[in-house]
Design brief:
Blueprint (H helix, E strand, L loop, with lengths): L4 H15 L8 H8 L3 H13 L3 E4 L5 E4 L8 H9 L24 H16 L3 H5 L3
Antiparallel strand pairs: 1-2
């Protein structure tokens, strides 16, 4: 399993918005500069974060984005599933997969299912608030 830049950048944007949220709406240009991410790429990520209730956006002068939820309510697992599609380690566990003709006799299927469950539980146990903590 490989998490794409889309998933990693979404997490970085949400952490940045959480850390600077006291100033209200933050222009994406500022976030892009602080995070070293292309503004054009952020403009591709933000609509899905907004549509799914992670950020609020306001256009025009004084506009920008802010975190729509408390950082402790933003689970990394939800964000990664939103940006990555799913966290399935093998094709047969993806939502759009056809049922494999060998599923009933597949000796590895239970292992992959358990691994996927472990991954989802792990990421669902981490929040943006947790990632804000500097060690």
């Amino acid at each position: 399993m490989l998490i794409s830049t889309r998933g990693r950048y979404a997490l970085r944007v949400l952490i940045d918005l959480a850390e600077h949220g006291e100033t209200g709406y933050i222009p994406m240009k500022k976030v892009a500069e602080r995070q070293g991410i292309s503004l054009k790429y952020l403009e591709q990520i933000l609509p899905s974060l907004s549509k799914n209730g992670f950020v609020d956006g306001v256009h025009g002068k004084g506009g920008g984005y802010r975190l729509a939820k408390d950082p402790k309510d933003c689970k990394v697992g939800e964000i990664l599933r939103l940006t990555e599609g799913n966290l399935a380690p093998v094709a047969c566990l993806t939502c759009e997969a056809k049922q494999c003709e060998r599923m009933g006799e597949c000796r590895t299927y239970p292992m992959w299912t358990e691994f996927q469950q472990l991954v989802n539980e792990y990421f669902d146990g981490i929040t943006i608030a947790d990632l804000m903590k500097k060690e």
